Amino acid sequence: MIAQKEVKRIKNFQAKFEGLLLMRVRDELKMTIAAYQTLYKSSVNFGLRKQIQAEQGKAELENRITDLEKHRENLMEKVNI
User: Fold this and answer.
1) Rounded distance, CA 38 to CA 46, Å?
2) pLDDT score at 80
3) C-alpha–C-alpha distance, residues 35 and 27, integer Å
4) CA geometry: angle 69, 71, 73, nearest 5 deg
């Protein structure tokens, strides 16, 4: 009878211990998922910012190309005179 009580006590202890381990695993998974979600959101925002910067830079470069082409034409006219 004492052995049966001891076995029950050990099983209860193991069940509590396993329950605590499962809770820790669950909490770690929640934190990991939250970290990945934050990382995803940050990377999407970063990508959007870079795209906007690239589009702005493209317009500036196109304007610079136009200005340089005009300047080249003026220089070519001076040479041909």
Assistant:
1) 12
2) 83
3) 12
4) 70
Return the amino acid letter for 81. Answer: I
CA-to-CA dists, residue 63 to 32, 45, 53, 55, 81, angstroms: 47, 28, 16, 13, 28
- The pair of structure tokens assigned to 12 is 């209860």
Using DSSP's 3-state secondary structure scheme, residue 81 falls into coil
Give the integer Cα–Cα distance in Å for 50 and 56.
10
Q: Which tokens hold the place of 21?
A: 């381990």
Query: pLDDT (tens digit, 9 = 90+) per residue, 47-81?
Result: 999 999 998 889 889 999 999 999 999 999 988 86
